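User: Please work through this fold.
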Amino acid sequence: MAAQIPIEHIRNLGGVTRTFTAGSAICGYDDEAPRLLFVLKGWAACSKMLPNGTRFVTEFVLHGGMISTTLTALSRETVRAVTNVTVVAFPDFTSLPKIEAPTFFYRIVIGELMRHHARMSERLANMGRRDALERTGHMLLELGTRVGTSRDYDNCEYFDCPLTQADIGDAVGLSTVHINRVLRDMREAHLLLFRNGIVVFLDRARLADLVDFDETCFDTTII
């Protein structure tokens, strides 16, 4: 495996740092200039609006993640800040000619695109082959793996999760009422607890086995 390259290293490449307040649009599919945005702090959500007016969240972008406005345009998605988000922005060398970049920067971009593809493959399996509890449990295990967990709460693993039940529902294709019921079922089964912006894995190993979760698909090591 190649050596890890801390995301902070890209600060030295001269990108433009910007901060977006919670709820504001970071980019849309009609943005003019192709850019690569790396999230230094906060949570963002990529989503599509369906013809019936409902929202489908395709991806949550976390610390170290990359937003490609070119990919956003091709997918006709909008990216909004879930929390206050700080990004560092660069011209998208994959779409603009004659832009030179250090080798490790190319590796960061390619690595993030590969991880994005792996997450989308899991998302397709989630939506097409898993039931409501499995979809929701898989999504929360994915987020916990990507953001990193701490251990407390009677020696259980947990992580801070700024998402609402509506956000989670939009990511797994369920209504808020259905998500509320699924979270209650997982709590009563002593699998997971979601309360006051915190996700607690009451039995992470059993939940991972139940939903067929493979955390290697969400490895955050930069290739």
Observations:
- The first strand starts at residue 16 and ends at 20.
- The first helix runs from residue 69 to 75.
- The helical segments are 69-75, 103-129, 132-147, 165-172, 176-188, 204-211.
